[in-house]
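Newbie here. two chains, one complex. Structure please?
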Amino acid sequence: MTNYYADSLSANSKLTQISANRCFDGEQHYYSHDSTATKTSMTFSIYLPDEALAGHRCPAVLYLSGLTCNADNVTHKAHVQKKCSELGMIFIAPDTSPRSNAEVDVANDERYFVGQGASYYVDATCAPWSERFNMQSYIVDELYDLLRAEFAITSIGIMGHSMGGHGALLLGFKFPSKFVSVSALSPVCAASESAWGQAAFSEYFGDNKVKWQESDAAHTIEAVGQQYASILVDQGAADEFLADGQLQTPKLQQACEKAGQPLTLRYQAGHDHSYYFIQTVIHDHIEHHWRMAQLS
Amino acid sequence: MTNYYADSLSANSKLTQISANRCFDGEQHYYSHDSTATKTSMTFSIYLPDEALAGHRCPAVLYLSGLTCNADNVTHKAHVQKKCSELGMIFIAPDTSPRSNAEVDVANDERYFVGQGASYYVDATCAPWSERFNMQSYIVDELYDLLRAEFAITSIGIMGHSMGGHGALLLGFKFPSKFVSVSALSPVCAASESAWGQAAFSEYFGDNKVKWQESDAAHTIEAVGQQYASILVDQGAADEFLADGQLQTPKLQQACEKAGQPLTLRYQAGHDHSYYFIQTVIHDHIEHHWRMAQLS
């Protein structure tokens, strides 16, 4: 296996390479590292086009996955590598929560929306979650700095699917100085008004309603106002979670209107919540982030 | 979920629909059916572009998967749907063997190359395999006829990966009247000269060396001579199974030379045996089958 990049990690790199596979004109890598924010080992995948492997700086986009996922789902099923290879774009998929912490492993088939695989990308304030469920700090500070230190990156955009779409909208508008672009696929738009989000926030924040508001994407957009030239959101029109109120898409539209934040919101006929939908529209999202990076 | 096609299965259809998901301008479907050839329930996936969903006949390609796979691997990881949607191509992925037959479930982590997930797409002649491991008859007769009866198909090509690449070359040249095109990704080219293939053929055919020869792809091509205007084979140059002799790629080249069968054989620098390689080249294969279908 040709592996251009492993040798060029920094001398005291905190990263351990798990795998490297040639894919189009680039390589799909996996890394693990010990995280300070989550006090455990974290894994992420990164697609590096040949330009980045050769040390030329490229724009990057962080993809936050949805409930129950880890880095594998989007890396295997979303079909991003071809477009990233063509554009010269770096694509990074972190995990959705800390893993292997028995004290917080309350997730199961019935409660897949709390705990492992369901961090909502916030810093929890209530025990037992507050010890390790600090995914906001992990993404926005620790992983962000690590990526900039270890890879040839010009700028970073943020996107996500479902719970990860909420994370991308939330973190993109809480930390606009860190990200050059925001987009979302089938996002939970207002976690504090979704049954999934309410279950999670009750665990992570208890009754602290200020925290609930500060961690709600639509509320945050309305509170901080316009931050990006435009944001792109795709939503399957036949998505069962749109129908049952988990996603609250109109709340995003209202928040953007009040904030003066230009929003391209596309309802795609016949499409559901699955990776079959994601692969259908994600190339447009990668191009959106690539264009925004050129303007930044 | 919009599901155009389920209602238009034939009145006495033998198919049971498992799922339907919108994907690009078409739908990804899964079906199961009771098989006469394998005396058990079989599952396959089929991508149907909108033209086919509307009843207009389209060219189709059968994809035979490699060792340990089922219909999911290629359906989730090979990224064929976009290209098939663009061209108006039907893509069908059968399983790699019968399942759930305790008497033949000898496969395990050490012997993943025999039994479930490892049929080699032959009709076994030795017990206990001969009862249900009749995957040649399943693919070439039963599934073939079922697909033509139930879906809007003009012609069928055949392709595959690894063990499934062997199956595509073998069945394509044994039954050239059934298929309009052949291609393979990282194929086992001569199963009777590969340690994997020898282990499987010993189980399925015992000492019957005539059966070994008749079931070897390179031998079959040499025996039957040119059948197609050209065949396309892609091989990762950094594939560990090429290096260790499982694939026997030069044997395919020699057989095609002797047979006068035009062969486009491409060694792709840096690429391994994984689905990261498959996704890199499979669009070219779909285009190959589409072009051959136009000429047929």
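Moderator note: Confidence is low (pLDDT under 50) at residues 1-6 of chain B. The two ends of chain B are 35 Å apart (CA to CA). Thread marked as resolved.
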